[in-house]
What does this fold into?
Amino acid sequence: MMLIWTKESLERLNEIGEYIGVNNPERAEKFVNYLIENAESILDSPNIGRMVPDFADTRIREIIVKKYRIVYRVKAKTIEILTVFEGHKSLNSDSFKI
It folds into this structure.
């Protein structure tokens, strides 16, 4: 299986890093790497995440890392990271393709 980061998910990671980096660039880099490592761990067990309540699709799942949601889609040979965002925000499906 292969992990694919969508344009949306990479943009969100960059925004998270920039936001944290204003006050602490070193911490920002460590935290973004932490998010990436957690996303990569999905490869070991793709169905570990819960189904996203906002969608009625068993292939769209998420894991919660600290206060962030990593939303991904399980396909036959790939896992697509669709987006990463703070958990208190609403999931906006307009920002990524389903």
